[in-house]
Each structure stands twice: as C-alpha cells, then as structure tokens.
Amino acid sequence: MNLNTITEVKRPASADQITHWRDGYAWLAGGTWLFSEPQVATDTLIDLERLGWPALMPSRDGLEIAATCRIVELHDFKGPDAWRAVPLFRDCIDAFLMSFKIWNAATVGGNLCMSLPAGAMISLTAALEGVCTLWPRNGKPRDVAVVDFVTGNHQNVLHKGDLLRSIRLPAAALGKRYAMRQVSLTHLGRSAALIIGTVGDKGADFLLTITASTPRPVQLRFPKVPSADELQSAIDERLPADAWFEDVHGSAAYKRHVTRYLAEQIRAELA
Fold first, then answer.
1. Of 175, 174, 193, 195, which is closest to residue 184 (Cα–Cα)?
2. How many C-beta atoms lie closer than 10 Å to residue 113's C-beta?
3. Which of 51, 205, 211, 268 has the fewest CB atoms nearer than 10 Å to its CB?
4. Are 174 and 87 in contact (CB under 8 A)?
5. Hey, how many other C-beta atoms are within 10 angstroms of the C-beta on 223?
6. What DSSP assignment string belongs to 28-50?
7. Per-residue pLDDT at 107 exceeds 90
8. Taking a C-beta distance cutoff of 8 angstroms, is the pair 199, 206 a contact?
C-alpha cells in the first residue's frame, strides 16, 4: 500500500542521528505491517537499513538477534550441536500466517513490537528466556526480558522514540530440550494457543511459556518437571477465568481448555 501521508524518509547511518522524536515519526524495518494499512498519523519514516546491524551473532554466551533480522535469516540459522533448542526457531516460524514476500521482508523485532498475543517471535524469544535491549532517544540503553516486554494486546513497554536494538537468547536456554504445541480454529488461521516447554538435563528447570491464548506471555517455572496435577493447578492459579484472550480466533473457555490440554502433552513429552 502506498502511504500518501509520508513527506520524508530519513536514512540515518546511526541511531544517534535521530536525537529528537516527535509525533508523526515511525521507525521502518521490514514494513510488512506499516505498509499494510493507512498510517494517517505518520508523515516521516526512519529507515533502519543503513544501520547495518548483523542479523545473528552467536557467541559462547548465546545468540544475539538484531531487531532487523529477517524471518528467513532466522529460519536458516544453524547453531552448534549443543544448542538443542535451535529447531524451535523453524517450528515457531512455521506457525506464522504469511506469504513468501512476508517471509523475506518481515523482521523479528517488528513482530515483537506489534505485540500481538499470537506473535510467534514473541513466543519463541520468551520461551528461550530472551532479553530485549532498548535504545531510547534520550537516556541510557535498558534491558527488558521478553516476557515483560509485551504487556497486553498491541501493548508493550516502549516509550515514544524507543528503538528495539536486539534480543539476546542465553546459551543455557538454547541448550535445553523443548516441546511445542500450537492450535488454530482453522487450518491456516491465527494461533489460538501456542505453548512451549523447555527443560534442562535430568528434568531440571522446567519452564512452560503460554502465548496466543493470553494477552501477553505467561511463564510457569518449576525446579523439575511437575506432575500433571501440579501443572494444572499452577495454570489455574496463575490464570483465572478473566485472564484469557478472547477474540474471533477462540473464546476464553476454548483457549483455556486447549492450553491445559496442550500443556499436559508438553509435560508428558519432556518428563
């Protein structure tokens, strides 16, 4: 879609060149949402392409994913053998509803900043204990865990002008075993529930991440794989009847049911 309200496109070589932020500005990365509908309140795009951030930077400490990393780049990543959770990248990407054009243009950071309950990159990076680095226009960079970055449907902790720089996945989380379950009301529909479990060696440090069925990511952590009753009780205690996200992709009751059902499948697989 052409954006006929845009009067200027800035292409800074450094984010520091954008010292002043005003209403009407918008960061541009993949632009798959930005160009999908009229942006009547936006008159200036700030293109991030010239910043040249490396898409993926593995190290002994883990993996740094640039906010501008394309979905296709993440899909093609091959990590070291010790990072047993890397195949989860492709599993979550396959949960997207997207064309090949979106596949090659959409960015990991854009999916996080959209902050949809069914954002598959939110599910992935939250489950692998990711940490976002945010660059404000005036102030020092700050780190926020992905699970705390999204605060609700289309809501997050970004302030005006804040730029999501990267998401860091720790090596300890990448080294865990994992299990994932996803369900939609229709064959190619948006996720009604996307649940991921991770666990360390000998069943230690079991982490269940609930997304899509709730407005924001919800995590339940146990020192070891819990029993079926312990897990169901923890879900019910953490998520009362009014905590589920209800929309055209599923009622609150349906999403609660499938979340509990899929969570037990994950628990049993990782036990």
1. 193
2. 23
3. 268
4. no
5. 9
6. ESS-TTTTTS--TT--EEEE-GG
7. yes
8. yes
pTM: 0.95
Residue carrying structure tokens 């780190």: 143
One-character DSSP codes across 102-130: HHHH-BHHHHHHHT-TT-HHHHHHHHTT-
Render pLDDT for 45-55 as a digit per residue (tens, 0 to 9).
999 999 999 99
Helix 252-270 / helix 228-238 crossing angle, nearest 10 deg? 150
The 10s digit of each residue's pLDDT in 73-90 is: 999 999 999 999 999 999
**Under 8 Å between Cβ of 15 and 49:** no
Helix, strand, coil in percent for the chain, rounding step 5: 30, 30, 40
**Structure tokens, 1:** 């879609």
Helices (H), 155-251: 171-174, 228-238
Would you state the structure tokens that stand for residue 84, as one six-digit string?
Answer: 């047993």
In terms of Cβ atoms closer than 10 Å to its own Cβ (0-12, 13-18, 19+), residue 9 is exposed
List all residues 6 or more positions away from 127 whose beta carbon is below 8 Å from its beta carbon: 88, 178, 196, 198, 207, 209
Measured CA to CA, the distance from residue 213 to residue 7 in angstroms comes to 39
Distance CA 86, CA 118 (A): 20
